[in-house]
Design a protein that fits this description.
Layout lengths: L2 H16 L2 H10 L4 H22 L8 H24 L5 H7 L3 H13 L5 H17 L10 H23 L7 H20 L1 H6 L5 H37 L3 H11 L7 H37 L1
Helix pairs in contact: 1-11, 1-12, 2-11, 3-4, 3-9, 3-11, 4-8, 4-9, 6-8, 6-11, 7-13, 8-11, 9-11
Length: 306
């Protein structure tokens, strides 16, 4: 299996995992929990469980002094992105917020081009445009959906934080660290944001009142936290920040499937076309250059023989 293909697989898994956020968080809101308290448990329990798993596997969690600050910054960036996204759910439909969040591949490409002089190909920009068109088509407005200004600002800031996080993972001093260890410390340091935002005791007092609530707490701690962070870190190592970010556009497709299969939402031709364009964009961004190179070789060979 080539590194590029591994990066694709891990990126897809990360996108699907992160797209499950509303599946676990919205039922917790319905039980009276706030975004800050949900994330307090998400990051706290997530870091505890993941630390136990790593220790059982025999992986060392020790870090050097020079690695503390970069890991802390990465943890804060990811935590703030999550907090802003979760707060936006209070002002607008979660599916719409999750869709708007995926302006972040564009922001990643801009950051990489401006600050790191990365030269993106026309194919890359075309895939970004195609993915964005697909995301727009996935949005299905109705009389019950309004684009609240506060919600839009919150989710736009969330996208910016996540874009900076992705770029920082690739270019930080800890980029060579094992994905497992990096993920553990990012989640652990991210917990500090919610200790501050909730007040430690306040966070503990907001306890899920039902067994299903605790199941959702475990779900949000494991799936969109541990799995998504670890796998996006692995994907970035294999294919870089820009490609990993574009693959993340599969997140709205995840939200779509959850809506249709779990909440019995409508599945229209427009929605199907949006999902199709995103899948095509992701396929081209990973294998497009290879396909083009192969086509050029065949044309050259045919021309030389002719």
């Amino acid at each position: 299996m080539s590194p590029k293909f591994k990066g694709l697989i891990f990126g897809i898994i990360a996108a699907i995992a992160y797209g499950s956020n509303p599946l676990f968080s919205l039922p917790l809101y319905a039980e009276g929990m706030t975004p800050d308290s949900v994330l307090f448990y998400r990051f706290g329990i997530g870091s505890l469980l993941f630390g136990i798993v790593l220790r059982l596997k025999g992986e060392s969690l020790k870090i050097k002094k020079k690695e503390i600050l970069p890991l802390f910054i990465l943890g804060v960036l990811f935590a703030l992105s999550s907090l802003l996204l979760f707060k936006s759910f209070l002002y607008m439909d979660a599916g719409v917020a999750s869709t708007i969040l995926f302006i972040y591949p564009v922001l990643v490409a801009v950051v990489m081009a401006v600050f790191f002089k990365e030269k993106a190909s026309w194919l890359t920009y075309g895939c970004i445009a195609l993915a964005l068109i697909g995301i727009v088509l996935l949005y299905k407005g109705d009389d019950n959906t309004t684009l609240n200004t506060t919600g839009m600002i919150l989710v736009a800031l969330s996208a910016l934080m996540y874009a900076i996080y992705i770029v920082a993972v690739e270019h930080s001093a800890v980029s060579a660290m094992s994905p497992g260890k990096m993920t553990f410390w990012i989640i652990l340091f991210g917990t500090s944001v919610f200790i501050v935002s909730t007040g430690f005791m306040t966070g503990l007092q907001s306890i899920p009142p039902t067994m299903s609530g605790w199941i959702n707490i475990l779900g949000v701690a494991i799936v969109p936290t541990i799995i998504s962070i670890m796998f996006i870190n692995i994907s970035i190592k294999y294919i870089g920040a820009t490609y990993a970010a574009i693959i993340g556009a599969l997140d709205p497709v995840t939200a779509l499937l959850i809506g249709v299969l779990v909440f019995y939402e409508a599945f229209t031709f427009r929605i199907a076309m949006g999902a199709f364009l995103i899948v095509i964009a992701v396929t081209l961004v990973v294998s497009g250059n290879t396909i083009i190179a192969g086509f050029k070789r065949r044309v050259t060979t045919k021309w030389s023989k002719g």
